[in-house]
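User: My advisor, Dr. K., asked me to get a structural model of this assembly before our group meeting. I'm new to this, so sorry if the format is off. These are the inputs:
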Amino acid sequence: MTPPVEKGFRGWLHVTGGIVGVLLLVQFVTGVLLAFYYVPSVDHAYTTVSYIEKVVSSGAWVRSLHHYGSQWLSLFVFLHVLRLFLTRAYVAHRIQWIVGILLLGFVMAAGGTGYSLPWDARAFFSTRIAEGLMAGLPFVGGMARLWLLGGSDISTITLSRFFALHVLVIPACFIAVVVWRVYGANIIEIFAPRHAIAGGVVFLLLALWSLKFRAPLGPSVVDMTADYLPRPGAQFLWLYQSLKYLPGGLGSLAGVALPGLVLLILVLLPWLRQQRLIGGSILGVGLVLVVVMTTASYVSDHRDPQTSRQLAIQAAHEDVWRREPFKPATITLAATSGSESASGGPPEMYTKFCASCHGPNGEGGRQGRLNFPPLLDVSAKPRRTVDDIASLLKDPASYGLQPPMRSFKDKLTDEQMKEIGEWIVKLKR
Amino acid sequence: MMNETAPMDHERSRRSFLKLVPLGILAGLFTSIGGAAFRFLRPKLFAATDSWLDVASVSELTGVQPLARKIVAEHIAGWAITTEEHNVFVLPAKNNQVLSAICPHEGCEVAWDQNTTRFSCPCHESYFAADGARISGPAPRGLDPLPVRVQDGKLQVQYVVKEQATRA
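Assistant: The format is fine. Below is the predicted structure of the whole assembly, which you can bring to the meeting.
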């Protein structure tokens, strides 16, 4: 059943649904666009996000739309739920109410999984916190942690899991509930001018906001320093600040179990007694908690001079990073090392006499207690030119080398030694 | 009568105008994101590499049969520099000419068959003579020769990317 379209000012209070619809559309479109370049692996995720930011036309704007869109979506879904509660939708329009609550849960889940994807320092910490929150759950913590990570520790499999959840599972849930909502609604109401106008205005504001403020990208996990201070997106600041006050397992209860329980109660609200009291208490306490904790987080960051200085340093580093040219990653698809000789591999005589100790591609080796040094980057060392290596193969002792390295002057011709030398000096790590 | 129908017409035209508002807003929204999406997805063209790559020492290139060699080339594409291995054939009997192993038909890689002394394409059965000339099959031409030079006793080649090689 569809509620009658309200007229006048009260009608404008109902536009939260239209705004949520437009923001969801923005998230879908920008998310699909980002997926054209993004690679969910720990060695390339950061590079591909950097590429989107620095090289792809409109890339920084599209990523900002997606980043800030997720925060605005959280806000407007919450306002939408508040509006539904105040108009007692849980009595007359149960589907609307349940869809609203489910959207709230899915939006937070999408935000939580999305934060890990750029694989910068913030992403790494957010993944660690997600891991900690799961691990601290009573009874199921250990198992939940393993399932979330896809293994015993955070790895590239973890990133793949977050990616699959973020772009496949959660969007499928969104589509399911939105279709459920639209199925039972009057299409005229969905496309009511007020909804469209409100959605359009919010989109315009978001577009301008995203032009002015770039989505943050911290240093890569590799370049992260010990003094880096991670800060989550605005929609998770309340949780971040709350965790400061909650020891150990209580954080898991407050961050995972309690929100899950609250959403469950709200979904079941249409069938409960004392609906106004229960729903009002939950939403009221939730609203106060979010506002107070978010404010406390901003205030504590600005009050503490050390924290505020470090955050300013991080922002300055990010500005510098944005001005630097993009650095591409290196991918080796060659079966043999790119530094090998043009003939496609090590010289035949190397394979015959040297590979058993120094490895098939000069990577070094070990036999029992004997360590054989790698030959990679050996040309950077003194006395290791092609001629030196040829001479060394004749008389290793004159180069200070001890047995088991032996002379090959009776086994190799001068040309073969030179060929081995030419190959070895090209070996790079 | 006229005085009664005029407000109704006015109301009807107001309503039909209001129906256009959401459509207009949605159109504006799609246009702005659509424009960005076009720029976002537009492919970026990268210049082909013109560096000279070592193939082999000239002294080892003897005999009458084509010699299979691998070259390692770097391609800059998108967010990565890709180091890729490519097969080429050196023809010592033809003044060390170097042929690309890419079939000019659809881009599969040909192999040298010692028994029949010809190159054969595994995909669509194109065959090429020992000097790379087309014998039979759907390939429009013989195997493509690559630019070569000799530097410090090394035979070097410029690798021409597949897309260019397959163009008739």
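One thing worth pointing out at the meeting: Residues 164-168 of chain B have pLDDT under 50 and may be disordered.

User: Perfect, thanks a lot.
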